Amino acid sequence: MRTQVCIIGGGPSGLILSQLLHKAGIDTVVLERRTRDYVLSRIRAGVLEFGAVNMLRKAGVGARMDREGFVHDGVYLAAQNRGFRIDFKRLVGKQVMVYGQTEVTQDLYAARDAMGGVVIHQAEGVTPHDLKTDAPFVTYHRDGAEHRIDCDYVIGCDGFHGVSRTCIPASVLNTYERVYPFGWLGVLSQTPPVSDELIYANHERGFALCSMRNENLSRYYLQVPVDDPIEKWTDAAFWDELRRRIPEDAAGRIVTGAAIEKSIAPLRSFVAEPMRWGRLFLVGDAAHIVPPTGAKGLNLAMSDVHYLYEALLSRYNDRDEAALDGYSACALARIWKSTRFSWWMTTTLHRFPDQAGFDQRIQETELAYLESSDIAQAALAENYVGLPY
Ligand code: FAS
Ligand code: PHB
Q1: Is 262 a catalytic residue?
Q2: Superfamily per CATH, domain 5-72+96-177+268-345
């Protein structure tokens, strides 16, 4: 088989890149290791920056999001049993969209099907070859046979544990990492959200986040030891701890219910440089991971796609490779700014194991300063709604 752009990974970044290129007349094939059902069973991000919203609309995939998503003008921060609101719309004139990554991925798959896009599932042992030549190819196994795809470019949209980043020689690749000494226990419950907008709560017992998916589907997170056995967190234990960490008025409104999904995820900041090796380009989690505190993971994948899509368009339409040559530096500039914001949100809102009373007071003062200063709030708002592409 031959295609112009071979994309490894059928998550949100691989799918939207394939969709955008297809709409521009550029041929792609997506190779996904898992079944579609498995990919769609993952519960992940919940907040879309306005840039990501525009990307989905541009890809012709925004209709259900615009119908069913929730536009949020702001967010609440809380500490010491009281909260205050950051008004994005008033401060920076922008908003965010609350619409789950699962829905985004579902909509992208539907759009690929509608356009006859080629997404090959259960592609095992995907291996890029000859990346430093002008005739790269990718091999994979499926149905007991080996297959080969010749292409112009290979795009690694295969996430943190994918194969593409490993194709960049260790002598060339630089990685930067911070592993946080805690995890997030996430719970999905068919209960009405406790608040009309998200609540990020700092508490001496640990961080809590109240989010949602729709008017009867709530998403909550608690900071917990990353090695906690999930069995320790019965529904009752979860709801009791959540009530302790958020302001009493919100705790009093919580409607509890059975968890329909419960999992503990580790938190890390990770950036790999460069995001290109010959004809291989890295996108999304294949190149970077942020702690979900800033709601940036999926949104950074979207801005990577924006830069790479525009660069491939220049190459194929105008035979101009300058933007491809500049992709890595351009994407990394925005990635590091979002990495900084996600690190700041995480270090300000979480309780660290070795944290002294002084550190807790500094965190509370950081939030008190935010509450008192429109300038400080505007800085948070411009990062949360998404820095310009
Ligand atoms: P993805 O990991 O989504 O997709 C990569 C795809 O490549 C997968 O389908 C995988 O099966 C496939 N693949 C991997 N190796 C392959 C191989 N060798 N061959 C073929 N296919 C291969 N972000 C937020 O903004 N907010 C959140 O709350 C949030 N919560 C998260 C919770 C968890 C548990 C995790 C893991 C991530 C979370 N994220 C969150 C980040 C997440 O949303 C990512 O940023 C987003 O999925 C990035 O999309 P992709 O880059 O497409 O990578
Ligand atoms: C979510 O709704 O899953 C969510 C929202 C905001 C975050 C992280 C996760 O910062």
Answers
A1: no
A2: FAD/NAD(P)-binding domain (3.50.50.60)
> Does the C-beta of 46 come closer than 6 Å to ligand 2?
yes
Distance linking the first and last C-alpha atoms of the chain:
34
Same fold, 5-72+96-177+268-345 and 180-267+351-385: no
Q: Is 293 in the pocket of ligand 2 (CB under 6 A)?
A: yes
Atom of ligand 2 nearest to the CA of 219: 2
Q: How far apart are CA 345 and CA 349, in angstroms?
A: 6
Q: Name the fold adopted by 180-267+351-385.
A: D-Amino Acid Oxidase; Chain A, domain 2 (3.30.9)
Q: Which of 388, 294, 315, 313 is nearest to 54 (CA)?
A: 388
Average pLDDT of the segment spanning 228-244: 98
Band (81; pLDDT cuts 50, 70, 90)? confident
Task: Spell out the domain ranges in the chain.
Answer: 5-72+96-177+268-345, 180-267+351-385
Cα 292 to middle of ligand 2, angstroms: 6
Angle at 358 between CA 356 and CA 364, to 5 degrees: 110
- Is residue 11 lining ligand 1, measured as CB closer than 6 Å? yes
Q: Is 288 a catalytic residue?
A: no
In the residue annotation, 192 being an active-site residue is answered as: no
| Ligand positioned closest to the Cα atom of 119 | 1
Catalytic residue (choose from 296, 307, 309, 316): 296
Instruction: Give CA–CA dist 12/110, Å, rounded.
Output: 12
Amino acid at position 108, single letter: L
206 touches ligand 1 (CB under 6 Å): no
The DSSP secondary structure of 161-183, one letter per residue, reads TSSGGGGS-TTT-EEEEEEEEEE
Mean pLDDT (whole number) for 40-50 = 94
pTM: 0.97
Q: Counting ligands in written order, which one lies closest to the CA of residue 142?
A: 1
Marked catalytic residue, from 22, 72, 288, 350: 72
Q: Please write the tens of the pLDDT for every residue from 158-205.
A: 999 999 999 999 999 999 999 999 999 999 999 999 999 999 999 999
Which tens digits make up the pLDDT trace of 18-33?
999 999 999 999 999 9
Residue 361: in which H helix or E strand, if any? helix 357-372
